[in-house]
Amino acid sequence: MLKESVEKALNEQINAELYSAYLYQSMAAYFEDKSLAGFAHWMDLQAEEEQAHARKIYDFVNERGGRVVLEGIEKPKSDWNSNLEVFEDSLEHEEKVTAMINDLVALAEEEKDYATHSFLQWFVDEQVEEEDTFGEIVDKLRLVGDSTQSLFMMDDKLGARAEAPAEEE
């Protein structure tokens, strides 16, 4: 059984994951408008991944006898000054999500909720991967600068992203 404080924090994380999906879908729409289909595809898949993360937490709350309470999702940003800014914002957002996950881990430890602590380790590992991936794209966008040819090459590479395999339990 989940303690009230842990249940509340997990519900907040569900909302944060759904906001992440909404934000990345907004970024996909931005890239579609710029005729960068590869970037848009990459963000579409990222949005789907974030929805899967929300569902993973949703299912866990239910499995532990908790109550999922969905709240409104904040409107995401919809316009950026550059492709680089989109990914800088993404990286910054993932760093905030990492801090939220770390706070959840600390709360689970404080409440001696070892099942939740164990469950959250997957998200800790996932956030390392997320920050690394976004950071690498930011670095590459900084390197290519104003090179149209390089931008199109990146668009092709990002467009080749395959759908993520089913999330491991």
Distance between the ends: 19 Å
Helix coverage percent: over 70%
Give the total of domains.
1
CATH architecture, please?
A: Up-down Bundle
> From N to C, what is the helix and strand string?
HHHHH
Low-confidence stretches: none
Mean pLDDT: 95
Count of helical segments?
5
Using DSSP, what is the number of strands? 0
Percent of sequence in beta strands: under 5%
What's the story with the biggest beta sheet? none
- Overall 3D shape: elongated
Structural class: mainly alpha
CATH overall fold name: Ferritin
CATH C-level name = Mainly Alpha
Q: What is the CATH superfamily classification?
A: Ferritin, core subunit, four-helix bundle
Radius of gyration: 17 Å
Organism: Halanaerobium saccharolyticum
Protein name: Ferritin
Pfam family, one: Ferritin
Family: Belongs to the ferritin family. Prokaryotic subfamily.
